Amino acid sequence: MNSPSPFAAFGNLPPLFNLHTLTFLHLPITMILATMRLIVIDSIAALFRSEFENAHSDLKHRSSLFFKISGNLKSLARKFDCWWC
């Protein structure tokens, strides 16, 4: 019997909220429990383009959120000895 995905509960939330919650809360725990060493994120920039307008304030917030998420992913990669680019 297959166990449900630990990320199935994110189905009804906005994509950026999913990514933020995934990278800061669930991913570190999953990496410890499942000894995960490979994470593939396809087209992260598309999530940011679809969620924000091109207004100056949106661009600033979008950049800030992008760097927080990418910085956390790099930190997790170093902590768990994973390869990243």
Automatic annotation (TrEMBL):
The keyword ATP-binding does not apply. Keywords: Membrane, Transmembrane, Transmembrane helix. It comes from the Eukaryota. GO terms for cellular component: Rad51C-XRCC3 complex; replication fork. The keyword Transport does not apply. GO terms for biological process: double-strand break repair via synthesis-dependent strand annealing; resolution of mitotic recombination intermediates; t-circle formation; telomere maintenance via recombination. The chain crosses the membrane at residues 20-40. GO terms for molecular function: four-way junction DNA binding. This is DNA repair protein XRCC3-like protein. It comes from Senna tora.
